Amino acid sequence: MQIDLRTLETKDAYKLMTGAVVPRPIAWVSTIDTDGNRNLAPFSFFTVASRKPPMLCISIGPGVGERKGTVKDTLRNIRDTSKYVINILGADLGEAMHETSLNHAPEVDEFEMAGLTGVLDTVTGVPRVGEAPISFELELDRIIDLGSDHLILGKVVNYHIQEEYYVEPYKVDLDRLNPLGRLAGGYAEMKEFYKLPKVKGGVLNGKS
């Protein structure tokens, strides 16, 4: 079966793509507007963009539902201030993350709505999620318009990790983190980790 995604409605092509590109990590992005009002929202079009300098990227689409056709608060705030934080969450924070994904008005403080702590020990002046195991502080490098979406590239200027998730030397305890992944219309916990090949004497590079 072959499908030309270019001929489909955007929502239908989106379903096929997000059902295949899984699991996706979730960037829980905190920003502030020019008046200092806080915003927090999750995005699953997210990955590492560069090793040197360390950079991360997220892709943000247009508003949906009642706010269809509008610019999302996160994108507007990053454009205006050039500063933001990407928080990494474990599965235990899934319900709080979901609350911040809802279509709140711009003046609503998602930290308060989700019962989260905004911590300001940051060099960017943007609050990070105190409950998040890991947080990256970023300065905007560039925004690239890609069709209906906006690819945001940011340079990492500071890194926060709670001590219980840190493993020497410079590693993250993934079992403790229990990262939450985004699927097509749902989520998955990642609890089992292993390396390949799983069995000695198994198939490796096409050879037994």
In short:
The protein is α+β, with helices and mostly antiparallel strands and 208 residues long. The protein has helices at residues 10-20, 73-81, 94-101, 110-113, 174-177, and strands at residues 27-32, 38-43, 46-50, 55-60, 83-88, 118-119, 128-129, 134-146, 149-161, 166-167, 171-172, 180-182, 187-189.
Explained architecture:
- The chain is an alpha+beta fold and 208 residues long.
- The chain is 17% helix and 33% strand.
- The chain has 5 helices and 13 strands.
- The chain has helices spanning 10-20, 73-81, 94-101, 110-113, 174-177; strands at residues 27-32, 38-43, 46-50, 55-60, 83-88, 118-119, 128-129, 134-146, 149-161, 166-167, 171-172, 180-182, 187-189.
- The strands form 4 sheets. The protein has a 7-stranded antiparallel beta sheet with strand order 2-1-5-8-9-4-3. Strands 6-7 form a two-stranded antiparallel sheet.
- The longest helix has 11 residues, at 10-20.
- The two termini are 32 Å apart.
How many strands appear in the DSSP assignment? 13
pLDDT averaged over residues: 93
Distance between the termini: 32 Å
Number of helices in the DSSP assignment: 5
Flag low-confidence runs. Answer: none
What helical percentage do the residues reach? 10-25%
What is the C-alpha radius of gyration, as a whole number of Å?
A: 18 Å
Report the biggest beta sheet as strand number plus sense, adding barrel if it closes: 7 strands, antiparallel
Which range does the strand content fall in? 25-35%
Shape annotation: globular
Oligomer: single chain
Structure classification: alpha+beta
* Helix-strand topology string: HEEEEHEHHEEEEEEHEE
> If strands are numbered along the chain, what order do they take across the biggest sheet?
2-1-5-8-9-4-3
